[in-house]
């Protein structure tokens, strides 16, 4: 699992890696700044949850199924200085 802050992706960005799922939450203004991305290997049992997206915060959220119980992986990026 890879967590990326300041991914600088937009809704037009296409980013793929063989054997991995890529989940992206871009900045809501549509320009290439801010944003978060999670990259998870396909053999890891998981599913995407609704992301959180404001001008100051972008969060990509994925629930990973663990052996004992499900866990949520939330990656939060604040663009506030």
In short:
This protein has one domain. Strands 1-3-2 form a three-stranded antiparallel sheet, with no helix packed on it. Strands 4-5-6 form a three-stranded antiparallel sheet, with no helix packed on it. By secondary structure, the chain is mostly beta strands.
SSE map:
Blueprint lengths: L1 E4 L14 E6 L10 E6 L4 E8 L3 E9 L4 E9 L3
Antiparallel strand pairs: 1-3, 2-3, 4-5, 5-6
Low-confidence stretches: none
User: Mean pLDDT score, rounded?
Assistant: 86
This entry's quaternary arrangement is single chain
> How many helices in DSSP terms?
0
Radius of gyration over all CA atoms, rounded: 13 Å
User: How would you describe the shape?
Assistant: globular
Class per helix and strand makeup: mainly beta
SSE order, as H and E? Answer: EEEEEE
End-to-end Cα distance: 27 Å
In total, how many beta strands? 6
Main beta sheet, described?
Answer: 3 strands, antiparallel
């Amino acid at each position: 699992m890879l967590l990326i802050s300041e991914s600088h992706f937009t809704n037009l960005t296409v980013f793929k890696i063989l054997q991995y799922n890529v989940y992206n939450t871009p900045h809501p203004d549509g320009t290439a700044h801010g944003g978060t991305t999670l990259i998870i290997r396909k053999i890891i049992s998981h599913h995407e949850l609704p992301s959180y997206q404001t001008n100051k915060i972008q969060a990509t959220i994925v629930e990973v199924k663990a052996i004992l119980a499900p866990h949520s992986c939330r990656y939060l990026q604040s663009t506030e200085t």
